Amino acid sequence: MRRLSLSSRLALLFAACTAVVSLFAGVLFSRASEAHFVELDQQLLDGKLIGLRRALHDLQSSESEVRLADELNRQADLSLRISGSDGKRWYDSAASLPDELPQRPGLSTMNDNGTDYRVLNAPLFVDKPDSPQLTLLLDITHHQHFLQRMQHLIWLTVGLSALATALLGAWAARSGLRPLRRMSAIASGVSAQSLNARLPEENMPPELAEMAHNFNAMLGRLDDSFQRLSAFSADIAHELRTPLSNLLTHTQVTLTRPRPLEDYREALHSNLEELQWMAQLVNDMLYLAKADHGLLMPKREPLELAEEADVLLEFFAPLAEDAQVTLSREGNAHLEGDRSMLRRALSNLLDNALRFTPADGEVQVRIIERPEGLSLTVENSGDGIDGALLPRLFDRFYRADPARQEGSSEHAGLGLAITQSIIRAHGGQIRCESENGWTRFVIELPKGD
User: Fold this and answer.
1) Cα(240)–Cα(230) distance, rounded to whole angstroms?
2) Are 318 and 281 in contact, with CB atoms under 8 Å apart?
3) Residue of 400, 362, 365 whose CA lies nearest to 381
4) CA 328 to chain centre
5) Strand duo 362-370 + 326-330: pairing
6) In this predicted structure, what is the pLDDT of residue 328?
7) Taking CA 291 as the corner, what is the angle to CA 286 and CA 292, rounded to the nearest 5 degrees?
8) How many CB atoms lie within 10 A of CB 26?
9) Predicted local distance difference test score (pLDDT) of residue 225
């Protein structure tokens, strides 16, 4: 079955609610009207009963019959039956009265051959147990006809109200959902070439304003991701173009004429360096792709960060000595993490710091343990980084150094991106700060269990 639209559902819901409310109100009004008629009939019959008792108080009186006829003639739709205490019929004021009448005392209702009666049974003498019984019958057929017409009118009103509400509800729902249709039209036009389209948030109903804001935020994230993906693809081609061109040129030159064996060996060694760099680049890209899809699953083993940092500082010590840079480490912390992944992240930061630290500069590793977690800072002295460039430092293939070397076999601009992926895989965050002649990368990690 075809699903109902939201407008149709709202219209049917409005119609159902209106029908229920109208029916409930109609039933209450019908019951109230019926109770009101019963009360009026009770008052009328009670009044007539008093007059009839007066007229019949002395059955031997010559005026009794005259007074009785006078009382009955005042109410054309009122009839009287007088019965003995044994139930034997003594008197009927009309020949058309039903043979069988309710015997229980008080007020009751009956129907005979299409005529409705309100019946009141009462003794003629209240203080005598063997008193004759008076049965007053009031023709209420016109009352019942009124109630029936009113019930028909109630059902008609319910139906018409439901229909009118359904139509008005459909119109109101369609008008109220116009912003949704406008949002749908804009969303249907969004494509890779038009991710800059945004939903209008002004004059939006409060219920839709938040959704429009979140949708625009999603489009912004998609646009940013798409731009990054496009730049990533361009950077890949940019990085691979130079080494591939070098390989082709070098190989073509080598094959132009016969050469000594040593020349071929040298050419192969040169090509091997380029191929190794390209292989490393591809491996780094695959590593980042795994990180993007949440496939980096670090091991959990107890680590002493001071020991891990000291191992790396010892490894970089010869390079630091050649560059006349001082290496140092302060503090210690315990952590459960992946040793190889964290060493790679810290190695990337140290290598990056050594490259941008001038002679006689310093590279410091600071480890601080706190109750809520720990922080590891790698900072180096030297020229700072423009604050506008800091948010882009962790972008892939991005180099803050304007003197960019295309296809450099040492630095492709993926180190910081890989470091950030490793830290996030451990549930931490990394940021860069640069001020007062110092540039520092701050890693914050949870302590874990």
Assistant:
1) 16
2) no
3) 362
4) 52
5) parallel
6) 92
7) 95
8) 19
9) 75
Distance of CA 183 to CAs 16, 175, 208, 414, Å?
29, 14, 10, 39
Helix pair angle (206-254, 261-292), 10° resolution: 170
The closest of 412, 414, 409 to 270, measured between CA atoms, is 409
In angstroms, rounded to a whole number, what is the distance separating the alpha carbons of residues 41 and 138?
Answer: 8
In this structure, the number of other CB atoms found within 10 A of the CB of residue 114 comes to 6
Mean pLDDT by 10 residues, the chain (449 residues): 69 81 82 84 83 67 58 71 79 76 83 83 82 84 82 82 81 78 76 72 75 82 76 71 83 86 86 83 78 78 91 92 92 89 90 90 91 89 83 73 45 78 89 88 81
Q: Which two tokens stand for residue 87?
A: 């139930």
- How far is it, in rounded angstroms, from Cα 65 to Cα 56? 8
